[in-house]
Specification:
This protein is mainly alpha-helical. 58% of the residues lie in helices and 0% in strands. The chain contains seven helices and no strands. Helix 2 crosses helix 3, helix 4 runs antiparallel to helix 5 and helix 5 runs antiparallel to helix 7. The termini are far apart.
Length: 178
């Protein structure tokens, strides 16, 4: 009965309107922090460290040095249909998506100083380039997203050549350096 009552209508005071996520330096910094937060599950998380330890002769391997995960570690590749590969692929693309959304949203941040926007754009492109660097090294040819994905059709695109991915990496890192 309570949800149907008119006296419980809520007027949210903390919601983002179009462009609010990019209209102050603090909002841009919060967006950047969101991108960095995905690195915990990607580059600095346990799966990442565990995967590269598999092929190391310096790390104690429980049981025998056999199996698909060990084989992938020795080859320096991952299979996207295996849990470790799927987890890394998913979290790396989450990082890429957040970086793309921030880069795209910078056009809406008119009140923010151009120098600060350039700094934020450089950081986002550096992380996107770093993500694609590891993605292409682990998986080879893969879909290259440099715009935010807004529909299912945009999400499921054909793989690009590893050469096209490396070209984008160089472009992103060059832009980030500048």
């Amino acid at each position: 009965l309570l949800p149907s009552c008119d006296i419980l209508k809520e007027e949210p005071t903390t919601r983002l309107l179009d462009g609010d996520a990019f209209d102050t330096p603090y909002a841009l910094e919060a967006q950047m922090t969101g991108i960095y937060s995905t690195l915990n599950s990607t580059f600095f998380g346990t799966n990442w460290v565990y995967y590269f330890n598999c092929a190391s002769q310096l790390v104690h391997w429980k049981g025998t040095r056999q199996g698909l995960l060990f084989e992938q570690g020795l080859r320096g590749t991952l299979y996207a249909d295996q849990s470790t590969g799927r987890g890394l692929l998913t979290s790396m693309y989450a990082t890429v998506h957040k970086a793309n959304s921030l880069i795209d949203g910078l056009d809406e941040s008119c009140p923010v100083d151009d120098g600060y926007k350039a700094w934020i754009e450089g950081e986002a492109k550096m992380i996107r380039g770093m993500s694609y660097f590891y993605l292409v090294r682990l998986f080879g040819d893969l879909p290259l997203h440099i715009e935010p994905v807004r529909t299912d059709k945009e999400a499921y695109i054909k793989r690009d050549s590893y050469l096209a991915v490396y070209k984008q990496i160089v472009e992103d890192l060059t832009d980030a350096f500048e």
